[in-house]
TrEMBL record, chain A:
This is Transporter. It is a multi-pass membrane protein. One of its GO terms (cellular component) is plasma membrane. Keywords: Cell membrane, Membrane, Transmembrane, Transmembrane helix, Transport. PROSITE patterns: ABC_TM1. It is found in: Cell membrane. Residues 1-28 are annotated as: Disordered. Residues 94-285 form the ABC transmembrane type-1 domain. Belongs to the binding-protein-dependent transport system permease family. The chain crosses the membrane at residues 38-63, 98-120, 132-153, 165-185, 206-231, 264-285. The lineage of its organism: Bacteria, Bacillati, Actinomycetota, Actinomycetes, Kitasatosporales. One of its GO terms (biological process) is transmembrane transport.
From TrEMBL, chain B:
SUPFAM superfamilies: Periplasmic binding protein-like II. The keyword Lipid biosynthesis does not apply. Keywords: Cell membrane, Lipoprotein, Membrane, Palmitate, Signal. This is Sugar-binding protein. Residues 1-27 form the signal peptide. It comes from the Bacteria. InterPro entries: Bact_solute-bd_prot1, SBP. It comes from Streptomyces olivochromogenes. Gene3D superfamilies: Periplasmic binding protein-like II (3.40.190.10).
Amino acid sequence: MITKDATISAPAAPAPPAEEPRQRPGNKRRAWDEVPRWHIYLPLSLYLLFTLIPFYWILLFALRPAGSTSLVPWPMTFDHFDKVWNDRSFGTYFQNSVLIAVATLVMTTLVALAGGYALARFDFRIKRGFMLALLCSQFVPGALLLVPLFQIFAKLQMINSLGSVIIAETVFQLPLSMILISGFIRNVPYSLEEAAWVDGCDRFTAFRIVVLPLLRPGLIAVGSFAFVHAWNHFLFALMFLSDQSKQTIPVGLNTLMSSDSVDLGALAAGGIIAAVPVVIVFAFIQKWLITGFSAGAVKG
Amino acid sequence: MKINIHRTGRAATVVALGSVLALTVTACGDNGSGAAGDKGTEGSGKGEITFWDNNGGVRTDIWKQIIADFEKKYPDIKVKYVGIPAASAQSKYDTAIQGGGLPDVGGVGTAMLAEVAVQGALEPLDSRLKGSSLDGKLSQNLLDVSRSAGGGDALYQVPTSANNGTLWYRTDLFKAAGLDAPTTWSKFYDAADKLTDEGKNKFGFTIRGGEGAIAPALDAVYGQTGITSFWNGDKTTVNDPKNVAALEKYIALYKKDTPSADVNNDFTKMVAQWDSGTIGMLSHNLGSYQDHVKALGAEKFRGIPNPTQDDGTRVQVSNPVDGMSLFKSSKNKAAAWKFIEFALSAAENSKFNESAGQVPANTDAAKDAWIQKAEPTKLAAEALNGAGTKIVQLPYYLPDWNTISKSDNEPNFQKLLLGKMSAKQFLDTLADQLNKAQADWKANH
């Protein structure tokens, strides 16, 4: 079947001009070589400096003693980290944030995978309307739905439960995730699945063995979005959770700022604790993430 | 090849729609329990009550101590503590008023009292206070501010603490320049000029130009002119020609004696800038005392009440008052009131304010030794309760006050600093909005 499709779709077009494409890379290489290196590195260095200064500022405040005005974090102290982690319960907040973010990632990815597959592979009557509704849902801010969500979770006895935040985060992540995943699935030739059916697989097995491995960049893109969004989101955790033992990192960071006083050292240390998992996640997945974005951008 | 699932989809659509409707109906079917419509009950005076701290995090430790003391005295009552970040307290209350889940007791500052009270969520406390051991023990000035902020008809908040506008100044820089303490406005302007040396990045003053700029500016304006009332009949005095002149003089400090970055100063940036630089004076409140101690050490600065006029007349605007409110929807108001009474007792109120660095509302607590040792708090208490002090009551009771004093006019204040708007234009705009809000409020009361 793959062969047949390939045969049918093979164009009988005249051969393209042979020389021009081969010369283009060479020309580009020569043009690149002629550019003085500092034309490239100076703007990049300035941009890097501009990006890194705020991070340095956070590190400086987190690592220098309270009251110090030194521009280098010396003598270095970890008192601020100790304070936020132990005295201000950031250890607990961190665990809760990890749990919420990972659960949101898993639920969003699984449901988006199923929904995205349906959108990519099935025709149904309200498909266009459904796609439109998914897109429109992106224009609704979370704050607008706080009261109805609060009432629903109260009825379900889920207020002050991490489950309420996980469900709310997942629901808000799903529309965009489904649209993204459906784009990735459309890029996988349907004929591959059909070939697997011919070889005796049922639909689910064909999906699992043939399609799923090809969706890795897409799954990583969607999963990382879900993780980072759930990790950083403040509003639902603030509104649906009450016990201090169930709060998350963004809410904890907010409690470091009172109405008329801010402990900048503790705030900076808390900010680093909040940023580290996101930085690690992006450091590991950036290769697949870029692949995922470009693959998803091509309509199948 | 695509698969057509019109027929099977119909069943799925019906199930999905049914689920959505069921959830919607259950949500809409809320009987209002916990929301503003619920009248609540006195309850048994035992069991669990929930307390929301509107300054969660920084005040958590001291509240937990007070709760432990309370539970020791009343073993039949358990208090569930919920700390809410200060910046989000209003939205948390608003959501709970609409969606349910209000606490029994909550910390409600005067800045948000009107908006919470106007939604019918709070229990009037006049009669409870009258029959309580607290009667006559709380500062009358603060009770007046609380009553006024709640609309004037009833007491919706029992004050716990007062803050006060404080002029923090660097004693080391003043001494080096041979300047007197900036106790009057003349000395303040003189010091601001003499301490400024822009080439060496030294400034006499740092002005608040960003978020929260309006109240300190009004404090400076009324403090200079000595006008003692915010209203003259139904019209505000804010754009009185004397106030216009005072504001012109005050904002003329910007860039002349202050850093140019001040146009974006909220209190965080302003305090951080003062604590880490060489700036002579900072106008904030008592709340930043500990930040200054950490950054500068206790010997390099003093905190005094805002300057007086040359003849010693002290006029200042009312500062937000922190307090506790009882929520109408509480199912255990008797126990909730016991907790408020306990937290406001002399010993506990003293303990709380020593930790918060504020002036206790309980007059017995205000006599405690720690206040005599904490000079900024002691001077603030004297200024607040001084016989000669005139307090201009800002209209916290107007439901639109927060909008007018923040989102509507903070950008205008920045235009004023940048010279894109005159002081008269700024104050006339502010006055028009306030007069309209006052007329609306009066029409509804």
